[in-house]
Write a structure and sequence with these properties.
By secondary structure, this protein is mainly alpha-helical. It contains 13 helices and 3 strands. It has one domain (18-410). It has helices spanning 18-45, 55-75, 86-99, 126-144, 151-172, 175-192, 197-218, 229-238, 249-261, 286-318, 323-347, 365-395, 402-410; strands at 106-109, 112-118, 121-124. Strands 1-2-3 form a 3-stranded antiparallel beta sheet. The radius of gyration is 22 Å and the shape is globular.
Length: 411
Amino acid sequence: MKRKRESLFQFSLRGLDTNLLIVLFFVMVFGFIMIYSASYYTAGLSKTYNNDSMYLLKSQIIYSLLGVVAMLVVSCINYHFWSIFVVPGYLVCVVLVLLLKVPSIAVTVKGATRWLRFGSLQFQVAEPIKLIMIVFLATWIVFGQRRLRSWASMFRMILPSAIISAMILKLSNNMSTAAILLGTAVFMIYVVHPEQWKFVLCGVGVVAAVAGVLYYVQNLDASQMEKNFRLVRIRAWLMPYEYEQDKAFQSLQGLYAIGSGGLWGKGLGNSIQKLGKIPEPYNDYIFAIICEELGIFGAGLIILLFVYLLYRIYTISQTAEDLLGRMLAIGVFSHIALQVMLNLMVVTGLFPTTGVTLPFFSYGGTATVFLLIEIGLVLSVNKYSVKKRSEMERRGGYHVSQSYQSRQNWR
């Protein structure tokens, strides 16, 4: 008897993880509140925003609604469908990065060329690349995981992401995106690798290399670092008061905001640092404004929301019916987790300053839309896994979790 072909679309709410949707709703609403609180002063004084104090909030809501629609559409599409496009998708990533060197469509803001403009459409290149590379690497792992034992095979698996990361770093100087892409790839491969001690060994080597770089930078003369802004940024992180008027100004102002918030904060809307002290407080440093206005209590609440959001995504990855579904969910999990951790570490002074936003809180239309599409992928994994389990139960042959059994065979 021929096997029934899986349907490509499933237009129903059954199988959607309601817990994930609820926590996502709270995160997004909390984000809207904080974007308005952090931006109304700057937007109200800026001709760029038509002197409209609600301009950035309205823009973020519009993009979020578009993202929610895209998320629901993606959740209705069988996640296996996207594997067909992984090779063209990878080529699209290469082309997008190369287009950053085309002056007529590349957009430079404050010395950073990270956006492309086609007519009235402008977007940040890094965001679609993150999504495409998650799908690419998940499919790549499915096809190559049985050979994933030697050092050579492990590095071959990481190589495609490493190439894109290197291109982004070289052509757009976007170290944060390069690090997130590479970190996501490493974590995805770590999860399925049969010999995880190799990653521990690599981690020890990375820590030793970082310690060596920090020692080297700390003992350099200022004149030796003038031509390398990354070394200057690291030194400013190590010795912020030597650079308090330029390179370390934003990070110090962020720490002042966090310190002045105390346990309960100054109250929503009462931040002092957003009144011209922290540049664009609604972007990378919005967490500092949250700490100043809502204190440790508000910051802790946001962290708990992210923890639960990530917990739901991880739970879906563990109940996925096949390796592709698990890897897609793990890819989204690692991307969001890395981005949240990097942002919090930068704002609290635990990591050198780099341009990484806080998901769903920092202002950014492109980032919000593609993050919601990633959530749509996770919802699709859960929906089709629930559907498959239901079919097996109806046939009376689903007594042991298929996903659990398949995971035992991955290693």
